[in-house]
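$ run holo --ligand "zinc ion" --emit tokens
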Amino acid sequence: MEPALGLLCVHAHPDDEVIATGGILARYAVEGLRTAVVTCTNGDRGEIHNMDADATRPRLAEVRRAELAESLRLLGAGEPRLLGYRDSGMLGTPGNDDPASFWRADFDQAVGRLVGQLRAFRPDVLVTYDAFGGYGHPDHLQAHRVALVAAEACAIPALYPDAGDPWRVRKVYLATIPRSAIAAANVELARRGLPSPFGEVQRPEDLPFGTADEELGAVVDVRAQLATKLAALRAHRSQLDPTSFFLNIPADLEELAFGVECFVRQRSDVVASGVEDDLFAGLRP
Ligand SMILES: [Zn+2]
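-- output --
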């Protein structure tokens, strides 16, 4: 019997797997497909909430690894797969200069580590961030670059010969937020007198980030996975700012905020046109 089709998502920090890809991970796991997450950094420069910050800081990497393990268990995405880098912190902070940070990582070495993960798991579909990394964090930009190069290098036998047998990833997608969705959320939040995490811009064409709707390659309905996705989010307890937007979305807006996941189609080995509603379109037996 052929092994089931596989999805692998490349993320920067523990918790990133939930917002952009928690729905697809949960949905495809329920369908019986193979799913996995590679997390590039240990998240040790993240914020600390709901626990003593000073006591937790030295062991934050360990705490976040346990939270990641629980999130992945809920999503059905196996065990944590870490690339082994330190969190680089937000752009312009001292963490950017740490030689052990992902931002300062030797590019070739980082690609090689991810190629090893890809050749071991053998995904048919790979998902990472768009070129802006969703919101511009250095580790997200680096994850985008490393993942796109690794997705190609993985299939070439002469590259990283010690990292396993070559494997061809057949479709590559970039998780993104459509500008229309951001603008719609801003309009609705303003109407209710609530602050928006995206600023106050209310017209899609005025937004400095996000993706134009005509560039979307796939929009996946994950409303059936909403409860799983929110449970996985809550597993990242150290990261849950009680005042954060994501924890305080009015219940009737949860589907709007979390019910679809959107992607740019970076490349596909199978004929694909228009907006797909399934990342495995064209690959299923
Ligand atoms: Zn992140």
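-- notes --
Strands lie at 6-11, 34-41, 81-85, 125-129, 171-176, 218-221, 260-268.
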